[in-house]
Amino acid sequence: MQSVWTLLSWGPEGWLDDIAYGVFITVSLAAATLPVGLVIGFLVALAKQSDEPSLRLAGNIYTTIFRGLPELLTLFIIFYGAQIGIQQVMRLYDPTAAVEVNAFVSGMIALGVVFSSYASEVFLSAFRAIPKGQYEGGYSVGLSGWQTMRLVVLPQLIRIALPGLANLWLILLKDTALVSAIGLTDILRQAGVAARVTKHAFLFFGVAALIYLLLAIISSFGINAIERAVSRQQVQR
Amino acid sequence: MSVAAIDRPPALPRGWPRQRILGYALVCLWTAFLAGIAAYLILAWNGELFAKYAPGYVSGLGITLLLVAISIVLGAILSVPIAYARMSKNRVLSGLAYAYVYFFRGTPLLAQTFLVYYGVGSFRPQLEMVGLWGFFREAFNCAIFAFSLNTAAYQAEILRGAIQSVPRGQWEGAASLGLHKLQTMWKVILPQALIVALRPYGNEIILMIKGSAIVAIITVYDLMGITKLTYSRTFDFQSYVWAAIIYLVIVEILRHAVEWIERRITIHLHR
User: Fold this and answer.
1) Any transmembrane segments, and where (chain A) (predicted)?
2) Which residue of B has its CA nearest to A188?
3) What is the ipTM score, two decimals?
């Protein structure tokens, strides 16, 4: 009977090194998804707040679809769908081609579209919180549309949207657990392997849950630091 | 310069500004995409396959809805004492409730489900002693257990937020009329709090329906589980497309129902 500390030690006996690798994968997946999701979310929010009805419609269809689908289903559809789609295209040139889609990239795309559809709502409500006078003021001092956006609206937008985006980051961190279902070796999958080998399921899944909790706590410290930094830039009135 | 010339609003953009071209292009793209899916489903239509697997989908949908309904109800019952503890002035009690809520909101639902489903095996002797082993051997019961605990944490926060959004004066007013605490809660505070809580509750149900898809990983044949099974047997990608359509329809129905109820119960607030 191995002791708990042996099981959780670093090296060939213990599983800590494997779980640490899982933490690396989870964190890098979340970190790689974040910029993609933020950019797409911002663009969709821009479309949804424009004066052009067709742009608004296109943005709303995007949010409706990717907010309505379960994250796991989105992941499977992108993982298997991309595999089948690319395979069909490849077969046109090489009938024997077998395609293996990268689980990390599929996970990134799936989590990215889900994140962006929620982020677009956060950005949209932030856009609505900015008075029209800010745009008009920008135009009246001779800034172009893009300059007004970059110099006047965006700095205020980020400050308003930050709490909502921080929340979405925590949700994203938790959603990365789903990629273990398509075979990516994240925290949960490594814990599952360890549990199967050692038969200490409660211990390893408990450790995995505590690691997620720790990541959330660390993130909230980071978020607090960012919020303080952003609010310091705010003009004192 | 005349006043009328100054007051005239800017002319609406006519013709084809860049935004409109982009918007039309995107809408065309979406139309093509959705039409493509419809065409794919029609082309891939296979009556034999449909007859074989459609009943499975219906029962899977039933399992999903049953799972969510039981978890939501159990979670709602469990959330009341948690919310009470969270609001209590007793430091230990509120600390414990806070830790509970923090744990269940800070870890993935999938990890919690695994913890219950695979982890109960570690406590088999103890569970057999109290006669609960039979309950936890079923994956469906494990899922209900994990989901109820999870949604209880979220619902406790919703309930607490809603109750605390009611101004203090309402408590004081009721107290000055001689209502005791329970009466105040039931007749004065809750009716006002539930208006605030309706939308978060609706979102929580939607999140549970979407989240319940993960039980497919622990071998419960809900809608997602049936879909995975169908795909692994037929290698026909349309099994996933059908599941996506069903999930989208349920979520949209729920979302609109919540909006409708909200419009109905806030009639007295609109002028």
Assistant:
1) 20-47, 68-86, 106-130, 151-172, 202-226
2) B111
3) 0.88
